[in-house]
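tokens incoming
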């Protein structure tokens, strides 16, 4: 019995990093994500409007802003992109069981023997591209016999190209050498020799190519032509951590349910310990005798795998469970876990951290973990950007805070003062319908806006801040923009 020819689909997301940001918060006009590369802030990914304005990835941000003053940027988030690509990879399992990531901006699917389930290769590719684009991602795709050929056709071939079985090598012959996934130095060297297309490279003696450019060039060529196999290896999914307990007769008493839960927790913690992981969320399912289900779920502010510590967290949930005609079985799962290696827990610092984590766990299960936040320092001179608000259960406290100049206890959006325009704080002014008289002022502290981030509130330019004591009591934070001779504003109030 002959095996069907191997068929590979390559999905390319050319603007994945920028599309991911714009899906959550659409912005009009030119947009790009940027990151620090080689000591300079550079564009990582740009949208269609930015491309039309002449911007491209790798361009210095200062040069891009000079070319396109309306450019809006956001910092690149590689970890967020990895999570989004992993979610897309899991979603693509609807088409075939073999799906892997292709770099940081694409997927590769081994659709051998699976295309007929979607109506053929053309229908499968069209459906995949249509669904991906509806999600908000620009997408290109191609199908060929090999992973290398599909990769090249998706990025350098015609839109939605499908190379017939056995003709992948011929289909990529007219593509540029970059379609072979060559290293930059090898690609530059081959280009200097006047080689432009894949067929030009295939016509050269292999020995001289290997001697001059290394075996990597021949490997990529052979992989694209199918003489060297390149399998699609999907990422291994971690096994679900779940345990189950069935009863010979239905139970209904709360103490019996709690005793069964304790047995499940002990077994689950044994599995967590073997995997060197700790639970961050636990879900208890109760199967009633009449076929219905009840559920209790708790979150944990720190990874845990000690049954005696986790059991009391279910007390409130168990009090609210209706056993109905009795419980036939219990099932306990840990849908969210984290790495948790052995650690010294007898020191005071670790004990305090665990106590705080336990407090956050109790509060989070009562009021919701999204309502528990903590402040973290941020590297910025702009007052409203000098801190971050993070989820307390998922962010470690800052080991130390920088010591900035004195800042108000309360910050708010700038509010104009009714006062004459002058370089120094006015002797008398009106704010919030109250008249204040200046007693003492210290300053100015000049703060310049961060030119690499577009903030409408700071488009007026630099500001001179003053600490002002008033005879009426309030200590205020005043500023003015000296470059345009603007009026005075108050942005904060000291304790």
């Amino acid at each position: 019995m002959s095996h069907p020819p191997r068929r590979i689909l390559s999905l390319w997301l050319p603007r994945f990093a920028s599309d991911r940001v714009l899906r959550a918060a659409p912005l009009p006009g030119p947009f790009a994500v940027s990151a620090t590369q080689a000591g300079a802030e550079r564009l990582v990914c740009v949208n269609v409007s930015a491309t039309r304005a002449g911007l491209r990835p790798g361009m210095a941000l200062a040069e891009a802003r000079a070319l396109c003053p309306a450019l809006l940027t956001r910092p690149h988030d590689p970890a967020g992109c990895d999570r989004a690509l992993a979610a897309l990879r899991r979603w693509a399992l609807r088409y075939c069981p073999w799906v892997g990531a292709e770099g940081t901006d694409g997927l590769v699917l081994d659709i051998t023997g699976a295309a007929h389930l979607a109506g053929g290769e053309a229908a499968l590719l069209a459906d995949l591209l249509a669904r991906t684009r509806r999600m908000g991602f620009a997408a290109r795709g191609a199908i060929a016999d090999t992973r290398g050929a599909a990769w090249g056709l998706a990025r350098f071939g015609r839109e939605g190209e499908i190379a017939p079985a056995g003709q992948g090598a011929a289909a990529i012959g007219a593509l540029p050498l970059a379609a072979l996934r060559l290293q930059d130095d090898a690609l530059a060297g081959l280009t200097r020799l006047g080689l432009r297309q894949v067929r030009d490279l295939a016509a050269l003696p292999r020995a001289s190519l290997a001697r001059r450019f290394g075996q990597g060039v021949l490997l990529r060529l052979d992989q694209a032509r199918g003489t060297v196999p390149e399998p699609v290896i999907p990422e291994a999914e971690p096994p679900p951590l779940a345990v189950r307990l069935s009863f010979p007769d239905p139970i209904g008493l709360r103490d019996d349910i709690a005793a069964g839960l304790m047995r499940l927790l002990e077994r689950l913690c044994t599995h967590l310990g073997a995997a060197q992981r700790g639970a961050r969320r636990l879900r208890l399912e109760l199967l009633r005798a009449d076929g219905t289900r009840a559920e209790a779920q708790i979150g944990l502010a720190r990874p845990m795998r000690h049954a005696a510590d986790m059991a009391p967290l279910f007390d409130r949930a168990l009090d609210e469970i209706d056993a109905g005609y009795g419980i036939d079985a219990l099932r306990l799962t840990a849908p969210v876990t984290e790495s948790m290696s052995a650690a010294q827990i007898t020191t005071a610092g670790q004990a305090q951290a665990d106590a705080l984590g336990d407090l956050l766990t109790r509060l989070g299960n009562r009021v919701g973990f999204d309502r528990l936040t903590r402040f973290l320092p941020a590297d910025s001179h702009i007052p409203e950007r000098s801190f971050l608000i993070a989820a307390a259960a998922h962010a470690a406290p800052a080991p130390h805070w920088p010591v900035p100049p004195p800042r108000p206890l309360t910050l708010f959006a700038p509010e104009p003062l009714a006062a004459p325009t002058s370089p120094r704080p006015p002797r008398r002014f009106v704010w919030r319908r109250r008249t204040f008289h200046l007693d003492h002022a210290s300053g100015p502290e000049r703060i310049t806006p961060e030119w690499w981030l577009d903030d409408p509130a700071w488009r007026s330019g630099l500001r001179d801040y003053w600490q002002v004591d008033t005879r009426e009591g309030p200590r205020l934070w005043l500023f003015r923009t000296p470059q345009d001779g603007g009026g005075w504003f108050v942005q904060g109030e000291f304790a």
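note: The first strand starts at residue 8 and ends at 12.
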